[in-house]
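Q: Could you write out the predicted structure for this multi-component system? I'm mainly interested in how the pieces pack against one another.
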Amino acid sequence: MLREITIGQYYPSASLIHRLDPRVKLVGTMVYLVSLFLFDTFYGFIAAIAFIGGIVFLSKVPVRYILRGLKPILFLLCFTVLFNFFLTPGDILVKFWIFKITKEGLYRGAFVGLRLILLIFGSSILTFTTTPMQLTDGLESLMKPLKWVKVPVHDIAMMMSIALRFIPILLEETDKIMKAQQARGADFESGGIFTRAKAMIPIFVPLLISAFRRAFDLAMAMEARCYNGGAGRTKLHPLQFHMRDYLAFAYLFVYLALIIVLRRWI
Amino acid sequence: MGIVSAEKLIYEYQRHDENGDPIGAKRAIDEVDLDIEKGQFIAILGHNGSGKSTMAKHINALLVPTEGTVLVCGMDTKNEELLFDIRKSAGMVFQNPDNQIIATVVEDDVAFGPENLGVPREEMIKRVEESLRSVGMYDRRKDSPNKLSGGQKQRIAVAGIMAMKPECIILDEPTAMLDPTGRKEVLDTVQRLNREEGITVILITHYMSEVTKADRVIVMERGRIAMQGTPREIFSRLDELAELGLDAPQATILAHKLREGGIPLPKGILSAEEFVEAYRALPEAYRVTDPYERLPKEVETSVTKLSEDEAPLIEIADVSYTYSPNTAYEKQAVKNVSLQIRKGEFVCLIGHTGSGKSTLIQLLNGLEKPTGGKVLFKGEDINGEQYDRRLLRSRVGLVFQYPEHQLFESTILRDVCFGPKNQKLSEEEQLLRAKEALRLTHVDEELWNDSPMELSGGQKRRVAIAGVLAMRPEVLILDEPTAGLDPKGRDEILAEIKRIHEEAGITVVLVSHSMEDVARYADWVHVMDKGSLLYAGKPSVVFTHVEELERIGLGAPQVTYIMRELFPQASAPKSEFITVSEVYRALSLKGDF
């Protein structure tokens, strides 16, 4: 059901990673994700696993929570791994019927699978330890230079945080409207693609009306609380680098240096 | 001059035709004079469209007068330079709890106002803490608003205003979308802020029980002030209130009726306590000694009588329902519930929010499938493999909460045809049934080809109910059909449902939060608590368990409390007085029941 979808699932805790500045985490995640594609060796993976493992350990997010994030891509994961297992040419290890597993295939399959898992770990540790509000704050701050080219950075950030707040509400609402139309005999499951698309009208029209009503209400509520764009605003949680953030940058730097060294010389 | 004052205030909406050309103005506020003193608790009453919300938006400078002036703390709302000073001094809380929370964390939302005002951070931290404490939500400061109940969300909204250090808070129907527990939470909070922190409160509401503690009540009608005075003064003019489409607390109505019947009770009684006190002070000749003795025997025995009839129309046997089983979000909503609904009954289902009643009704028409147990319609298992559940949904019609939110067609008639169309009926038959349903719900024939979006709230709801009735169901299930309506709309919808029940012989299952409505309409009541069925029986019998019902966040009609307080010697009665007319007859010495 729709309500089971969780977006920006945050795992509340007061760990060191949770307290890091979102800018550090955003930059860190980006560097880490890129780094995963910089190596193709056993040692590289050891370094990446050690790096993310240390962060997961410090974040106190239970590993099974992160593993659950793998579920939606489980099929993709298995498929790519097997694909690589069987279809990479090279020294044949095992052979039965039309399938053959090669040494190279084994390596590539394992590497691709591992890389995917490490990608998920990296991105989910960001959402698990950073509230959507901090994320948007971080993005707003990182995008600040774009103000010079007249990009409305504050407004974009505000829109993003409002979207994050209303996504679960609108999902729930969709669920409710669907049920209400089903109670009037609507059928969303049978018929061809055109019939089915047409069957969605009784859901989309009310949903759109409701979204507009909510937007109107929210705009009024914001006005009533003196919202006037970004100018002159102060913040309850202003972004400030602390000692821990510099340490995190150092950690990140060491990791990046190690990866480059591994790529270059080993 | 007080903190808020209006002089000859006029506000006109510009109306436009389909091409966007102006076709004249509609006057929403018509020469209103107002003067509110600092520290007062003011209640503004009036049915929908009386202009009370428009009035409120003027105090916050969300609207500016067409003519006349509004002064807030001496500042003219027309002066745009003072806009933020005005909004800071007179904060506003709106009706929909979801649509006024901006941030995804409670404390960030409370900080939104001060952030906009550019309050320095140290000061802001202090303010956020203070205001969250003042509404009793400090423990939830790190939570997501989505995890909170409606009442808690409204308290967050109040805290968000308090953090701007206002002189005055305006609340525009803050409790209309809440359950009784939430309503009480919000009201208690607001009253405490008024009393302890001296905040001026302007409360706009439909609920008469909420205004009894106000310093002054203003009743609006057609953009004008129709009545004004203390709650006692207002509620002694019951006939005028009725004319304005408003009601009064049961104690007030009861006292009024008894006084007309010759019993010398004082005027303007506001609460059950006041009634009890006044009744005890009556000369002995006017007092009844033991009305419970005189409750007819058949009321007590009919509990068994009703269940002996023919086979039940709907039967659910040992039904359970678990949301998202085997995940972190697993939640058992219904636990081993067994109940029967017989043909022709008017059944009420009551329970606190989250008691499982909304899930239960979705099990009745096969929208949700039970994770355990069986649901039978006319003896057949509706979750059997061969069973046609789409056909079932036209037999067991379900009207959801706020059903007007599902309207989507360009005309009313076409929208009501949606159900019959899905039944694959011929076009003539669709129209026939749609028209029949619209007549049943008293939707004016002239409107049938108009867009449903332009109707008033109550009218829209009737169209939505007609949309279900057009399938000619045998059972009509309604989830809080009166939610968010004003007293007049409330009474009309309920009377309509009662009439449909009687005239069309449709079995009705009504989910309700109002004990008064249950007492008045139900043949049979099912009480849910934490997913289980706690009681089932005739309302007069179920309401004997007042203490237990209160423990689970419900209660009993006000008159029941009055009778129990007046006649405590009738310990553990087998049935209770539950309606005003019953109690009136019992206390008016006029013989038989």
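A: Regarding packing and overall arrangement: Residues 204 and 575 of chain B are 37 Å apart (CA to CA).
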